[in-house]
Amino acid sequence: MKIQIKYITTLVLLLLMTFLFSFTKHPSNPDITPVTNKAIIHTDTTWTKKKAAAWFNGHAWLNGLKLKPHQSIDQLVFARQYTANKILWDKAFAYLKATDLTAIKIGHYQIEGEDVYASVTEAPTKDFAKTRYEAHQNYTDIHLMITGKEKIGVAPLAEATVKTAYDPAKEVGFWNAEGKMYVAEPGTFFIFFPTDAHSPSINVDGPDVVKKIVVKVRTAGK
After folding, report:
1. Residue 44 pLDDT
2. What is the pLDDT of residue 222?
3. 83 lies in a domain?
């Protein structure tokens, strides 16, 4: 009788241990493990300036596009935006790579519906006093000169003051700012995020007729 009781007790303990073990977290059981590889990758995209700079300067994101990104591009913001909207950014750069910009006509070009599109314009540059700093909320701009050159002013939006309130219908607001001036020429592209106030179309040495393409990429979360 004592042997039977001991056997039953041992059996009950084994069953109880098996039951409890089935609820423990174990990396070999994908149904139980709360963190997947996908989640780990997502967590790993928490960018730092150093990490973003290494990624940016590696140029893998260009996917073979033979253009130079300008030094003024905010590398940290770009790394975050590219990671969040990789498909759209890849389509934008693929379009620039596949398009004969020397032959492209003035106009509007859809790349990925209204999420990625391009506008090609040709217009004279202006005196600085006749230009304004602008910023957008829903789109990030890629600016590339096709012919001619112009100066572009760039300033952090956080340091600018409102001149004309943002108009959702036109997707633009105008700002007073003191920015750094850069010369934009064919072969090098600029990227302006909603955190950047930018003032394009400024004379370099005098008036010039500039043909350029602006590719707009929908900002992540918009």
Report:
1. 40
2. 82
3. yes
| Residues 12, 87 within the same domain | no
Single pTM value for the model: 0.79
Give the pLDDT of residue 87: 97
Residues contacting residue 211 through CB under 8 Å, at least 6 positions apart: 106, 120, 121, 122, 145, 146, 147, 148
205 and 134 share one domain? yes
- Cα separation of 18 and 114, whole Å? 56
- Residue 86 CA to residue 92 CA, distance in Å, equals 10
| CATH assignment of the domain containing 131 | 2.60.120.370
Question: Rounded to an integer, what distance in angstroms lies between the CA atom of residue 209 and that of residue 125?
Answer: 6
Instruction: Look at residue 9 in the predicted model and tell me its pLDDT.
Output: 52
Average pLDDT, 10 consecutive residues per value, the chain (222 residues): 49 49 38 29 66 97 98 97 97 98 97 98 97 97 98 97 97 97 98 98 96 97 84
d(CA 60, CA 188): 17
> Hey, is 154 helix, strand or coil?
strand
Q: Which domain holds residue 70?
A: 48-218
Mark whether 91 and 127 lie in a shared domain.
Answer: yes
Same domain, 24 and 114: no
Element spanning 43, H or E: helix 37-43
Q: Is residue 135 part of a domain?
A: yes
